[in-house]
Amino acid sequence: MSTARTVPLDPATAMRLDLEDIRIGYGDSTVIDGLDLVVGAGEIVVLTGPSGCGKSTVLRAIAGLLPVRGGRVLADGDPVVTTSRDRAMVFQEDALHPWRTVRKNILLALALRGVPRQQRREHAEQWIAEIGLDGFGDYLPKSLSGGMRQRVQLARGLAGSPRAVLMDEPFGALDAQTRTSMQELLLHTLAGHPSTVVFVTHDVDEALLLGDRVVVLGRAGEPVRAVVDIPHPRDPRRRGDDATLRLRRTILDALEK
Ligand SMILES: Nc1ncnc2c1ncn2[C@@H]1O[C@H](COP(=O)(O)OP(=O)(O)OP(=O)(O)O)[C@@H](O)[C@H]1O
């Protein structure tokens, strides 16, 4: 399976996101203060940073689940004021409906994204094949391994081709081998379903593998610690080369500040 995107990214299908000087918080506390970030159509931008610095909070603001207190979040130039089926969330925790089969979980996501009823069944079968779960369509989540459940979550997140996908540590609970295969699956799947991705992770190697750009957030209220452009994103031949190791060091130094 290739880890490179195999189709050109189409700005018509992927969404541009602009965060302009945003401030977000809960109650009396401010978590993010003055964050600027541009995510171009079809880019994968990785957010990392110390625990509690506000990575999930930023995703919630982009999703439209949490209003900003200052600045603006723009989706293709329009202020984000609420959730939209164009912006999907994929979480680490098991967000599958436990009483629905794999197929029904995916069918529901397709319905929520507005895929016409007569096309849903076929799309669901395509997704089941794409995530390598042929033969498991009638299984309930509890009968699947953690990695298999996460595959279904990925299909649910990307089903109906949302124009932006917001991924909150989606592979954080998986063992190293399953995590690697999920990263490959994500890149392979995105090649066929171009989308803009904002991806939160604590894992520097995952950030280096997936991102066009890695943004290291500071602790709540602090400025961004580093923005690292990845010169050859998703090129497996660059893993371990000197340039990549230098970028790795930069990210680790920023995390340890
Ligand atoms: N619903 C909430 N109500 C009040 N405070 C919250 C809420 N959600 C998060 N916070 C606080 O906001 C801050 C940022 O939380 P957030 O979950 O965004 O951080 P994070 O960087 O994603 O953390 P982690 O890496 O540990 O997942 C933390 O101090 C957290 O306690």
UniProtKB/TrEMBL annotation:
Species assigned in the record: Gordonia lacunae
SMART domains reported in the protein's UniProt record: AAA
Signal peptide, first to last residue: none
CDD domains: ABC_NrtD_SsuB_transporters
Protein's UniProt keywords contain Coiled coil: no
One of the Pfam families matching this protein, by short name: ABC_tran
Keywords on record: ATP-binding, Nucleotide-binding, Transport
Record protein name field: Nitrate ABC transporter ATP-binding protein
